[in-house]
Amino acid sequence: MIAEPVGIELVGHFATVSQQREAAKLGLWAWLVTELLLFAGLFLCALIIRIQHPAAVTLAATHLKFWIGAANTAVLICSSFTMSGAIALSRIGWRAGMLRFMLATAGLGTLFLGLKGFEYYQDYVEHMVPFLAGPYVLARDQATRLFVDVYFITTALHGVHLITGVSILLVLTWQASRPHFLARHQNRIEVYGLYWHFIDLIWIIVFPVLYVLNR
Amino acid sequence: MRDPATPHGTIGQPSDYLHARYTLRSWFFTTDHKRIGLLYLASITAFFVLGAIAAGLIRLCLVVPNGQIFTNDTYNKLFTMHGVIMVWFFLIPSIPSTFGNFLLPLMIGAKDVAFPRLNLLSWYVFMTGALFTMITLILGGVDTGWTFYAPFSTTYSNTYVIPALLGVIVVGFSSILTGLNFVVTVHKMRCPGMTWFRMPIFIWTLYATSLIFLLGTPVITLALILLVMERAFHIGVFDPRLGGDPVLFEHLFWFYSHPAVYIMVLPGMGVITELVAAFAQKRVFGYKFVAYASIGLASITFLVWGHHMFVNGQSQLASTVFSFLSFAVAVPSAVKVYNWTATIHKGNIRLDTPMLYAMGYIGLFVLGGLTGLFLATLAVDAHLHDTYFVVAHFHYIMVGGTMLAFLGGLHYWWPKFTGRMYPEAFGRVGAFLIFIGFNVTFFPQFILGYLGMPRRYHVYPPEFQLLNILSSAGSTILAVGYFFPMIYLIWSLWFGKRAPANPWQARGLEWTTSSPPPPHNFAVTPRVDFEPYDYAIKAREVG
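^ Those are the sequences you sent over. The predicted structure of the assembly is below.
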């Protein structure tokens, strides 16, 4: 292992390196607050539909693929672990190890998306997609559609975040593979890590709110 | 440390941000917060003109009671475009994105905002949202009202709801990016010695506004995404045919859109505080109270959204609680009004144009605020809900408040923005025209509403015609009043007197640098060792 110098390159309008680092971190936290509120609206909808139509929601929730959701939760928790590893290694300047952990994180994120796609396919096969043409398995209770619609919107919105996350991570990995990256931009790994953990955290709320609470 | 070391006339070095470079590229790809502020100023002025034309056509239509000037479809589209454009493309970005961008770093002694490139991005995002709105207009408009209530917007409207919704969703991200930038800038970019309680009140109000941007905007983004999903793909969450609840949309909508009122009002309050202190040459009375009142307003405003839904099927208990909380909003608002009047009291008052706007603001804001209390009263609201009384009330806040603050601030900081003075005599005439025109336009609407004329109808009983004609006549005076500053401010860009660094003998950091400021704001980083508003006359400090 060859430790590289680790640091951050000062941008013109900042006075000190620590000011720049803290500003980036606070900025990302502020962004995450907005993300939380974006999803909070969906959680609110899910809970209100559950209060208004408890029987329909239970019926619809039993048709969700619980084990795929649970497996995906495990996948994302593992990916948070690998991301933490990448951050820890970036701090001590072990670039090669860091890059491997970042690729592993991107791989786990892709695995999540693959499983999610398979789950959507299963939903399609079981006629659980009421907004598409064709039969709907729970057509006898129209209120189930409300919950199924919230399920699709929530998981799709989360999926969009994950696709964005994996894309940024791959670009970041490519950037980080070039020399002197850690000496100039180690901060980016830290800040990106916050975002990744947060997508993970959102799923950890989505899973119980949609899959577990209503069974 | 307040001696302005103005770096004027160094050979070979650009003296100010306007003359640093002249290319189009240097404007459209700038990361200088001052230039981005001016980009916003130009864009929102264009939208203001569009929104004002729609308003003029609405008033034209209402001159006659039988609605023969426009069809009801056209009328619905007119008031919707007026609302959408004025709320989302003028009032919300008005003060934060123009004055905020330009002044925030100057007032706290920073070289720029924390994320300059993000700042530029937010303008492009704004313009993308604007593009969607223009597409909506060109295709033929939208008729849902600016509130987009379901299920009309999701199912029954035959107009271009989706591009209009996309425009509002996109412009929301511009707000979020601006808010994020401002929060981080206030926290991390203050110059040495600029403690929290040495910040000008304008910065406090911008900070409070930015918190609302961050905490409110994502919720309406989501609510509007749900509308788009339901209308475009039939993925319906609010659809009553499935057992969905359209009132849920109203909750989500007003959870943002009521705080949005304070996005529009709070920065205006900040501007007025700056104007009042500078033109009374006196320290702000109860500085800390005013600062805390800003944060207080930003907090309470998240708890009162239900007062928009007293008659929309909300429970009695919920309405009672929302009514009580709405009354609570009056407290920090009143703190501000009393502190402005106490600041003016026994000050060394100069009645220049910005101060005229500030005085107009205080009067109109009081009237708008007090009529808000009528509407917060449950029994009275049952009578006044959805009448012209409500229209008059919020125009007293939005126009009498935000618009006057915007114009007052524009005159006050115009020398700093452009390096030129505006013609004072014309400025005063303009301020009077707007004050008179505004009152003639909107005061009759209080009476109309009290008598029972509902909003959003293009026909009305003939006995209301006199008051409607009065209102429409007032709007022509108002239009002249708006047109006036546009002419002489543009004129002053070439022919105005050159502005000194501090034409108002004001005490903020922005006045210690040259007019217009150099590209990086200050020749040397300022070091603050003085209290805010340290004018010669001191108010008795209660804070």
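The radius of gyration of chain A is 20 Å. Residues 17-52 of chain A form the longest helix (36 residues).

Shout if you want it in another format.
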